[in-house]
Amino acid sequence: EDQVTQSPEALRLQEGESSSLNCSYTVSGLRGLFWYRQDPGKGPEFLFTLYSAGEEKEKERLKATLTKKESFLHITAPKPEDSATYLCAVPANQAGTALIFGKGTTLSVSS
Amino acid sequence: DAGITQSPRHKVTETGTPVTLRCHQTENHRYMYWYRQDPGHGLRLIHYSYGVKDTDKGEVSDGYSVSRSKTEDFLLTLESATSSQTSVYFCATKPGLAGGYEQYFGPGTRLTVT
Predict the structure, then answer these.
(1) Which partner from A29, A67, B56, B79 sits 20 to 30 angstroms from A51, CA to CA?
(2) Partner residues linked to B110 by β-bridges
């Protein structure tokens, strides 16, 4: 069964304190791994797509990396505005018509 | 961002009443999806559509039906709402297969069934 597991469930950081979020997956024939950001009361906002092991994508203080079994979202020198829930997802089947989501990591950054 | 709107944004209804949620997109995306999001479960697929009048079930489809009569609109109907359907519902869209697998989400509808 295809699964996506995110850890930790919650992470509290001080402003400027770098850390990483983990997303591990078990799916046959990976057709991409996606990271989303979700703010309270809003829909998930697409951040990155990673397609192959070794690939990296960056956006401001965020960098996503991918291995054959997991992905990391590295947050460098976070700011309070980076506080949100971060979700990762993989396509569920060959046609890629649905995504399987992890339960998310809720990040809180305090000043 | 894909132009996706959902209506209503908030709704309170009573057990046993029918409820219809609407998703409207302006991006001409082929695929549309309905998810529900609950604490401890994350986002789960209810139904999806791969074209006008073409729909299929997702992981948690019991008690829900969908319709898509136009490319831009995807309706989710709860035939007889139950308290277990209290949730936040998100619509998402995706271009055709050639456009990649990432999905784009609407702002959500918070539904409370009393």
Answers:
(1) B56
(2) B10, B88
Token match 């297969």: residue? B97
Contacts of B105 in chain A (CB under 8 A): 36, 43-46
CB contact under 8 A, B50 and A97: yes
Read off the pLDDT band of A61 (50, 70, 90).
very high
Question: Which tokens hold the place of A63?
Answer: 């960098």
* Alpha-carbon separation of residue A58 from A19, A61, B49 (angstroms): 15, 8, 32
Closest Cβ opposite residue A31 in set B101, B106, B107: B101
Nearest to A88 by CA among A106, A104, A66, A108: A104
| pLDDT tens track for B45-66 | 999 999 999 999 998 999 999 9
Residue A89 tokens read as: 């997802």
